[in-house]
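SUBJECT: A protein chain and its fold
Encoding: whole-number codes for local backbone shapes
Chain under study, with its fold:
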Amino acid sequence: MRLPVSRAMEVCPVEVAVSAVGGTWKLTTIKHLLEGTKRFNELGRLMPLANTKTLTRQLRELEEDGLVERTVYPVVPPHVEYSLSELGRSLGPIVEAMNEWGAQFAQQHSGA
């Protein structure tokens, strides 16, 4: 677990959640991984605005916090897959609710 998440435990559970999943592209990454295991380039294609450096960092943080599992296959060229851990999958209802809320919000503000 990363230090920011550990420190958030001293504040409140909401801060723990925000520390674990807050950050550029983390929730979107989780949303895509809820659909199934993905390779890095697949995630990159699903999130074309995410640059490689940021996506790499966010995946490492999600892995360090136990939300994402990284599987490396011993082949050439390297084959790496990302999937959600059991803990990561438990975010499914939360991410779905946020997705629905975000769609409603965007719809209400699209004509403003």
In short: The mean pLDDT is 95.
